[in-house]
Amino acid sequence: MTTQKPNTADHLIFYNHMHREGSDITILIGIAEIPAHKFFLSEASGYFKTLLSSNAMEVKSGKITLQEIDLYSFRIVLDYIYSGKVDYLFKETTRTSEIFSIIACGQYYMVDSLVNETYQHLENMHLCNSGNIELDLHFAKVIIPYGTDLIQEKVHDIIKKGVFKKLSSEMVEKLMKIHLNVREPVIFEALIAWMRANLDYSHLFAGFLGHIEFHLLDEKHFDMLFEPDRSFCQKLLTEQQKQAEKVRKVVNRNVINDLSDLRIVDGVMRRRTNLNIGSVATYMKDYIVIDLKQQYHLNCLKFELHNDLSYTVSVSKDMHDWECVIDYSKYKCFGQQVLYFDEHVARFIRIRSTEYTPFEINTHIEVLYSTNPLETDPATKLIIPKDNIIPPTALSKCDADSAGGYSEGCVIDGVVRHKIDSGCIIYHFWQPYIVDSMKLLLNKDISYYIEISTNGIDWTRVFAEENVSGWRIATFDKQPVSMIKVVGIQSSSEYLKLYKLECPAV
């Protein structure tokens, strides 16, 4: 039988789940029978979408039995499926424990939008960061069985607030199996604290310690172990060191296949609305550290900045010895960054702000070994472009976005202009380049000059002409450039008009 989408009236009437007209499936929870519509269940719930599209006997019978589920929580979830509202959150009678139970129910039935809205409400109320260890513990118990993404987002709170020490052995086991987004010493110290508080579970200690990468620890951490664990860990350390010495070379392909491969050991993964969108932000430090989980041959890194930043990039095999491969500390960067450097073997990548300010990057990070890297300046590692790096679409607006653009000037009908004796035209690259020329298409009888800058503060005049028209080629000494400023000083009209800009001139 083809499932018909209920009309709006049915939808609204059916909101209280007591109106049976138009229902095509019945949900059984204990003695309760709840009429529902396949369409709405499938639209909002990944669980029901899979179940109702199957040939299961209970689906064919028109009755689905749900086992071991809290009826109250499920009714709230069902209310949300039909109404899209989370009114229960704002009722004074709703207890925090009930909210956590509803989150667990929403996670189980894969009603992601409900979970996200409820979680955001808790964040706004500071319930997930309350300082109340029992409340934080309750929150941890809800998210650990279901949501790896939530675990990674709240792992700092779970570990640093003493919540970890109070978790059950089952929850600790689940956490230890995940590559948590914190440094190995932090995980180790939390586990040791849990072990000392839960001596009755000593038979599980060896298994839990087996998830620790001991070769990433310091000697002082071994001193934290009580006998005979140290001898056990020494054998494990030897095995891990042999494994850690293995190096992969993945050619022309990102070694981070998806978000499950992205481990952040310094920084925090921001909550995202779907699996493809998110951000990584600094957390109480001025840098982010990415763990590739094993060593690779690398010479290229790509990521997108969410804010203006001067930064450095360093790589390491073990987080002890770091080598700087990119130094953009003198340049103001934003948006998409494409970096090439000399080949290195590394597992960890550190992006550090040189201004000691917090920053964010997109979770779509590319790390690879390129067999066709762009030419770079040996001293600065800045790219030396051979082709025009200013896209034709740059003239369509006056807003320097993640792909660069004009930050000063007025765009009218695809032409950038500024009034003589008032203002200027500035084009801002998203990262610095080494260039020595540019090509401009100007209006008639114009006198102008060009300045360049790497930070928007200090400008150097590199070219000037008087009473010229049409295409012009400006050449100057090869040097780093982040911004180009074109200033008209005299014209037969009252404006300098820039019809096209290409850099370098080719």
What this model shows, in words?
With 506 residues, the protein is of the alpha+beta class. The chain folds into 4 domains: 1-125, 2-Layer Sandwich (Potassium Channel Kv1.1, Chain A), CATH 3.30.710.10; 144-238; 248-368, Galactose-binding domain-like (Jelly Rolls, Sandwich), CATH 2.60.120.260; 392-502, Sandwich (Jelly Rolls), CATH 2.60.120. Helix content is 27%, strand content 34%. The strands form 4 sheets. Strands 12, 13, 14, 15, 16 and 17 form a 6-stranded antiparallel sheet that branches. Strands 4, 5, 8, 9 and 11 form a 5-stranded mixed sheet that branches. The protein is globular, with a radius of gyration of 29 Å. The chain starts with 7 loop residues before the first helix and ends with a strand. Mean pLDDT is 82; it is low at 1-19 and 126-134. It comes from Panagrellus redivivus (Microworm). Residues 23-90 form the BTB domain. It holds the Pfam family BACK.
